Amino acid sequence: MSVKAFKLVSAVEREMLMGDKNYINIECIECCGKNLYIGTNDCFIYHFLLDEKISAAGKVTFAATKQLHKYLGLKKPVNELKAASALTRLLVLCDNTITLVNMMNLEPVPTGARIKGAVAFTLNENPVGGDPFCVELCMISVKRRTVQVFMVFEDRVQIVKEVFTPEQPCAVAVDGYYLCLALTTQYIILNYNTGISQDLFPYCSDEKRPIVKRIGRQEFLLAGPGGLGMFATVDGISQRAPVHWSENVIGAALCFPYVVALDEEFITVHSMLDQQQKQTLPFKEGHILQDFEGKVIVATNKGVYILVPLPLEKQIQDLLASHRVEEALILAKGARRNIPKEKFQV
User: Fold this and answer.
1) Residue 331: which H helix or E strand, with range?
2) What H or E segment, with its residue span, contains residue 292?
3) What pLDDT, on a 0 to 100 scale, did the predictor assign at position 289?
4) CA separation for the pair 321, 85 (Å, rounded)
5) 16, 292, 85, 27: CA torsion to nearest 10
6) 166 near 146, Cβ under 8 Å?
């Protein structure tokens, strides 16, 4: 049974990004407040300001205004972008090097601080240090079976730890001292402070793209065997039942109380409260699905779209209207912390 939980709204049309240049493809995106950054296959970063407009009828639209674009001077794609807003820095991975650039003018920091030898990286949203003017970065190194942890400041970087893994890592998420890693044949949790690691479950990275995503304090979401979206805590246990995805999921995101997944043809929405599939949106050629501060963004090679959640009260009323009282109660109780108190009482 379907629930209308999200609406797909266009944010950046292809003409705004590439005009008539067909060869330009979107490689990665980052969103921080109203700032949307796009990295392309021809080594450019584009900066847009996203303005959300809500009509009197409650219809949501987005207007993207291009601020500037910057060529990084290489013939390589921009692989990854991460914003560190406390430092007003954008971290850019291109040609195995992470460069620090200013979030507003996209100019590299004057000191030239950079990290070489990176395959992929992520930022620690639950940092272990108390310095507000520093971000913790964890990266998969080009050195075989190595993960490195760095402190990144406004104009310098400092290595903190180098950790060796039993197999080659291909994806990483981090929470505090805990690394959740997709290795060649399995997922593991590794405490980089103590060096203690724990096997989670087997997985073949040759056959499918691994998904490792931090979804909250000490909890991760992983693409498991048999098309299952599995939850795992840092203790290696699962406190929630898995959700049933398709076999070829490309990306996953969390927008409480829903888990959103992208495959080659659809965006699917599952409830974390009862694990049921609630909505299916046709979406062809999608290759990126990420959530940024509660905003879920999907992208094809040519355009960027936002999944706008419908108000929970409206979803509950729709369920009641179609006599699905049990589901309405589960959603109301499970999403209680996201509904204003007086509306919840009603």
Assistant:
1) helix 325-334
2) strand 288-292
3) 95
4) 43
5) -50
6) no
